[in-house]
Amino acid sequence: MVNKKGKGLGRGIDAIFGEIDKESATDEAVEEIGLDEIRPNPYQPRQTFDEAALADLAQSIKKTGVFQPIIVRKSVNGYEIIAGERRFRASKIAGKDSIPAIVRDFDEAAMMEVAVLENLQRENLTPIEEAQAYDMLIKKLNLTQVQVSERLGKSRPYIANYLRLLSLPAAVKQMLNNGELSMGQARTLLSLKKKNKLVALAKRTVSENLTVRQLEKLIAQENAGAQPKKATKAKPKSPYLRASENQLVDRFGTKVNIAQSQKGTGHIEISFTNTEDLNRILAMLDVNID
Asked: 284: helix, coil or strand?
């Protein structure tokens, strides 16, 4: 992995690229490369681009040109974009034939990480795009969630919460991508036990503009209806138990329930959505099963 200024990619986008303006004035040459010789980054996590924002950028480029060079690498047939795809797209809209670029030698792993980092730090990915970016790093580079969190400067529960979104039905993912559902609403929907009702409840959430708290109540009622009725009403939890639950939820990135009897005995329940989620929790507990 080529990186002249650092030992890894986890220190942020500036650590990877350096100060572009300073470098282009010293040891790196800026070239004018034809737009028809350039292809987008195959690992670009962004699936959709804001057309209005691109049009505004294109108008700016028509008037003043591209001030910051894009970063590319040489490929078998032309060049591939490492960073700067919005400038590349806007230049095409503006009718430009070429764009200023700096050519760098990046391998596949570096190119993949840079694509994710640039989008996370310079643009707003949708929650699903962000989740897919983390999933791609894990699968393509054979990384663990811990390694991804360390490289990107995110907590492990943060990464895990995004990855859980990928288990949502396609229709719900689309609602999240379109901005109809919020991240909080989507995470809450994951706690619904009857998964065949997920899409219908997501549509209801959108149509009735339900808040996360309202959605939580609906799901609690739905989940309770699927279980046998308890003989006695549960005693309200103490502030200490509720605070402890909240800390464990933040730690494990999933639903946690602490129950305590009048005698002081009790149990802790940690929920998981699938085998991968279970393995993630076991790893956090340092439980190794051969």
From this structure: helix
How far is 223 from 195, CA to CA, in rounded Å? Answer: 11
Residue 266 CA to residue 244 CA, distance in Å, equals 13
Residues in Cβ contact with 209 at an 8 Å cutoff, skipping those fewer than 6 apart = none
The amino acid occupying position 58 is A
pLDDT 10s digits, 132-145: 888 888 888 888 88
The model's pLDDT over 214-251, given as tens digits with 9 standing for 90+, comes to 999 999 998 887 554 444 455 677 777 777 877 787 77
- Indicate the SS3 state at residue 202: helix
| Residues composing the chain | 290
Q: How far is CA 1 from CA 42, 168, 218, in A?
A: 18, 35, 50
Q: Which active-site residues does the annotation give?
A: 85
Sequence-ordered list of residues with C-beta below 8 angstroms from that of 226, at least 6 positions apart, any chain = 193, 194
Identify residue 263 by its one-letter amino acid code: K
Q: Where are the alpha helices (H) located in 18-68, listed in sequence order?
A: 20-24, 51-64
For 13, the token pair is 């986008």
Long-range contacts of 131-138 (CB under 8 A, 24+ apart): 131/162, 131/163, 131/165, 131/166, 132/45, 132/166, 133/45, 134/159, 134/162, 134/163, 135/163, 135/166, 136/43, 136/45, 136/112, 137/112, 137/113, 138/163
pTM for the whole structure:
0.55
Q: 258-277: buried (b, 16+ CB within 10 Å) or exposed (e) per residue?
A: beeeeeeeeeeebbbeeeeb
Rounded-to-integer distance, Cα 290 and Cα 278, Å: 15
